[in-house]
């Protein structure tokens, strides 16, 4: 029992550590971007800094959600607290979209009233340093999110990757302003970046809501499950077929329930052993699987059951 609980606990600690790293890095990166804006007055760099404010707030939300999601099932939440991650990712997605809208609005105003920029080389250097730091943290979070199947960390990683794209667009725009002296390029860069951020926020929000609505497992995972079920169909052993399969996911845990048709001549103990074997096989292929199997007897016209019944007369 201790060994089975160790892996989930370790995975949870890894996710929490990753969220703490994201939060600490977000504060440092925000400082760099704020400094870049203050020394230049660039609205594009301001848009970059504004998204980092969202990053820091979102990192706090992600950390809290991961702590909640890691709690074991209790009397009031018998299936656990894993869906807290979806709440976190949906909140972060909404914040990303709002940040995109704000950036677009500021960019439009600056486009209508361009302003001269100052000390651009220093601002570009600070922005480039923050972009590289963001990229490193984003790749780290993405790796942990895939390993631990955490949508909250994936949302943070995607958010930071969008921030890297923001920074790249901002750097390009500000560099063009430096090269050409045409100030409206600053606002144009902010406008393009803001639109991209808005699109990414909406896409992430849709995914998060799907998780809260108990969306079924991906087609490739359901195909793997059906292949295992078909492999276990054996008239001699006693499994005749299956139907009414349903699946969903909450965080890293997959939930599956189905009806398993077995020969009516099997004892309760024999049917239980069959389902245990099937559950273990499913969990080996797709770790973190919570399987519920309803056993039902085959049709009375089943040749094997009829033969067994005749032999017992």
How would you concisely characterize the structure shown here?
The protein is mainly alpha-helical and 313 residues long. The protein is built from 9 helices and 3 strands.
Provide the fold topology.
Elements: H1 2-40, H2 43-69, H3 84-112, H4 120-148, H5 151-180, H6 184-212, H7 219-232, E1 239-250, E2 253-262, H8 268-285, E3 289-297, H9 303-311
Parallel strand pairs: 2-3
Antiparallel strand pairs: 1-2
Describe this structure in words.
There is one protein chain. The chain is mainly alpha-helical and 313 residues long. It is built from 9 helices and 3 strands, in the order H-H-H-H-H-H-H-E-E-H-E-H. The chain has helices at 2-40, 43-69, 84-112, 120-148, 151-180, 184-212, 219-232, 268-285, 303-311, and strands spanning 239-250, 253-262, 289-297. The chain has a 3-stranded mixed sheet, covered by helices on one side. Strand 2, helix 8 and strand 3 form a beta-alpha-beta unit. The two termini are 46 Å apart. Mean pLDDT is 79; it is low at 1-5.
């Amino acid at each position: 029992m201790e060994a089975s609980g160790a892996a989930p606990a370790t995975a949870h600690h890894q996710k929490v550590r990753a969220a703490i790293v994201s939060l600490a890095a977000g504060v440092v990166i925000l400082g760099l971007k704020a400094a870049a804006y203050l020394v230049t007055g660039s609205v594009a760099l301001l848009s970059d800094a504004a998204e980092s404010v969202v990053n820091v707030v979102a990192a706090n939300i992600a950390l809290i959600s991961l702590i909640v999601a890691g709690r074991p099932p209790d009397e009031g939440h018998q299936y656990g607290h894993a869906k807290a991650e979806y709440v976190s990712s949906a909140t972060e997605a909404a914040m990303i979209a709002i940040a995109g809208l704000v950036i677009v609005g500021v960019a439009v105003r600056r486009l209508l009233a361009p302003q001269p920029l100052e000390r651009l080389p220093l601002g570009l250097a600070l922005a480039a340093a923050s972009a590289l730091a963001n990229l490193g943290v984003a790749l780290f979070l993405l790796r942990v999110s895939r390993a631990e199947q955490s949508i909250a960390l994936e949302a943070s990683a995607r958010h930071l990757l969008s921030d890297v794209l923001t920074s790249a667009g901002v750097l390009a725009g500000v560099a063009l302003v430096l090269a050409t002296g045409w100030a409206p390029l600053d606002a144009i860069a902010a406008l393009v970046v803001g639109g991209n951020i808005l699109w990414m926020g909406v896409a992430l929000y849709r995914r998060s809501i799907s998780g809260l609505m108990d969306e079924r497992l991906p087609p490739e995972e359901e195909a793997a499950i059906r292949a295992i079920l078909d492999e276990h169909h054996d008239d001699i052993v006693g499994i005749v077929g299956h139907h009414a399969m349903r699946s969903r996911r909450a965080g890293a845990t997959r939930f599956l329930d189905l009806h398993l048709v077995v020969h009516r001549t099997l004892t309760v103990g024999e049917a239980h052993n069959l389902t245990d074997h099937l559950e273990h096989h499913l969990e080996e292929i797709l770790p973190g699987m919570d399987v519920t199997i309803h056993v039902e007897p085959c049709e009375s016209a089943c040749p094997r059951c009829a033969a067994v019944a005749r032999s017992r007369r």
